[in-house]
Structure formats: C-alpha cells, structure tokens
Specification:
- A hairpin with a 2-residue loop joins strand 3 and strand 4.
- This protein is α+β, with helices and mostly antiparallel strands.
- The strands form 3 sheets. Strands 2, 3, 4, 5 and 6 form a 5-stranded antiparallel beta sheet that branches. A 3-stranded mixed beta sheet has the order 9-8-10. A two-stranded antiparallel ribbon has the order 1-7.
- About 13% of the residues have low confidence.
- It is flat.
Length: 322
C-alpha cells in the first residue's frame, strides 16, 4: 500500500505532536489509517518525521495490538537531501500482513477467535453472468450484444431501474436494447472479476465484465497516454448512475496522472461528475512546481475553454493555503 505526501514543504507547518491522517483503507477485512507526523510525535522527535499505522476498526475480537510505527522514521534534513523527495513530494510504502488464523480454546478457557470471511457474493453473480442463467434482457453496444438480468441492473442503477421497471410507457420491453454513442472494450475471459475490496458484489452485470481489465498490452491508450478503457467506463458510469464504478474508474485514471495528463483528467472528472478524481487533480495542481510545468506547456488552455469554472476552484485551493 503506497501513500503520497504531496506538498511536503507545506506539511512542515504542522506542529509537533499533531499528525495528518491518510484516508481509511481496508486490508484483510479491517479498516486502517496511516498517521504522518511532519514534526515528530513527541518533543524529542521534533527534528524527525514520525509515522504510524493505526488499526481503526471496532470489529476486532480479542485483545490485539492496534498501533505500530516509528517515532524517528527519518530526520527531515536526511529526507530533504535524499532522492526520495522530488517535486515537493515523496511516497510512503506500507506492507501489511493480517494473520486470520484462529486461536484459543486452550486450558485457560479462552474463547476461539471467530473470523467471518469476506462475502463471496460477487463470485455468485459472476457465475450467473457467465452462465447467462435467467438472463432476461439483451443490450447492444458498439455492434456487440450482452445478456443481463433486469433485477440486478435495476438494483445497482436508478437509471436502469427507471428504464426497465418504470412507468409502462417508459419501460423498455424490446428484446434488444440499443445503447448508442458508447464504445465497448470487453474481454470475455475477464468476466465476473471480483471487486477491489473482495467483500461484496459491487458492480452491475453489464460493467462487471470490464472492471478487472488490467493496464496490460491489450489496453489501448489515447493520444494523452491515458487508458481509454477507463475513460469509456467513466462515461458509462456517469450516464447510468453507477457511483461505485465511477469511483473505481477515478482511482484507475488517477494512476495515469502526471504533469502532461492532469488537465485532461481534470476535464474528464468535471464533465462526468467524478468529484474524487477532480479533487485529486486540483491537489496535484496546487503544488507550485506542478502548476508551473503545466502552465509552461499551455495545459490550462483546454481547461479554460472547456470548464472555466474549475479555474475558480483551483484559485480557491491556492487561497486556502495563504
């Protein structure tokens, strides 16, 4: 698991003993947080960076350790002289291993530690999609057809629900429903992949076939160097109100973010209402070094022409730092 500290110089204003928390993330079925202390956790560590991993989950049985880390992870001067600090950013890599084996039942009468495994519902839905058992609707996209299940589509998307189960005059009753102005990139061998948290079936059947498509040689990239599969999926997720799929697309597109692609991603996020990706782009541009590089390449011209309101939000980001 990696975490990027963007704008390191600004974090040095955080007082000793105070931390910046990462967004919560899940590993092994539990919720975790990384705490970054730019000026140390304790007074004797004021010249160093402290770093801790915190188990922030109430669903833990038994007595377990919930806090790991280093008071003196690295001295600030050493970090600033190192190759790890680049463009006012550095990356923290954290490896987490969760032992889910049971224990207890010994002579001391300790109760066994009962671990409930993650839900495998997504696998059942994947099998249903592959076998086409009970499929009752067919979509035609880009000249290809896909069978699906109305009830699953309706459960995952308010748009599909209205289209398939709305008022009688609006319900789609045709044997084939055509979706125009959209592209499809489907590898049937990838059908039914699991979601990233491996906890529950989170995607609509029609999109599940593409969710696990990886960034390998089979994927095509546009002139911007950004993976086209995830761009097309973001358009579909916005059109059909698939909020979790939109987040997954935003996360995948975020991996392509650099000084040459950030404005393209910013426009995509604004046009297709992916607020998390938009915030990531604005935070990237909030770094003076990144913004200067983008402006030198006239990268903001596209944003100015397409989404001028976004520039106001960028200015507000800068104003908040003053």
């Amino acid at each position: 698991m990696s975490f990027v500290v963007d704008g390191y110089s600004r974090t040095k204003d955080v007082p000793n003993g105070e931390c910046i928390e990462s967004r919560p993330f899940r590993v092994g079925g539990y919720r975790w947080i990384v705490e970054y202390y730019p000026n140390g956790k304790d007074p004797e560590d004021a010249d160093s960076i402290s770093l801790f991993l915190y188990l922030s989950d109430d669903n833990v049985l038994g007595t377990v350790k919930t806090y790991w880390g280093y008071n003196n992870f690295i001295e600030r001067e050493a970090l600033e002289r190192s190759k790890h600090l680049k463009d006012d950013c550095f990356t923290i890599w954290c490896d987490i291993v969760v032992d889910l084996s049971t224990k207890g039942g010994g002579s001391d009468g300790e109760e066994p530690l009962m671990v409930v495994p993650p839900s495998d519902m997504h696998r059942h839905f994947g099998d249903l999609l592959r076998t086409k058992d009970g499929a009752d609707v067919v979509f035609e996209v880009g000249g290809e057809t896909f069978t699906a299940h109305r009830c699953v589509l309706a459960a995952r998307s308010t748009i599909f629900k209205a289209q398939l189960f709305g008022s009688k005059k609006n319900v789609a009753t045709a044997s084939i429903i055509r979706i125009d102005d959209m592209e499809t990139e489907i590898d049937n061998e990838d059908a039914g992949g699991q979601d990233e948290d491996d906890e529950e079936m989170e995607e609509v059947e029609a999109e599940q076939q593409q969710e696990e498509k990886q960034g390998d040689d089979r994927n095509q990239q546009g002139n911007t160097g950004i993976n086209m599969v995830w761009q097309n999926l973001l358009v579909a997720a916005d059109r059909y109100d698939l909020q979790r799929l939109k987040l997954i697309c935003g996360k995948k597109l975020w991996a392509f973010m650099d000084k040459s692609t950030v404005t393209t991603l910013l426009v995509l996020a604004e046009q297709y209402h992916c607020q998390e990706l938009k915030e990531a782009c604005l935070n990237f541009l909030k770094s003076p070094a990144n913004l200067q590089a983008v402006m030198a390449a006239d990268g903001l011209e596209h944003v100015t022409r397409t989404c001028p309101s976004v520039l106001k939000e960028l200015l507000a980001k800068f104003a908040s730092q003053v």
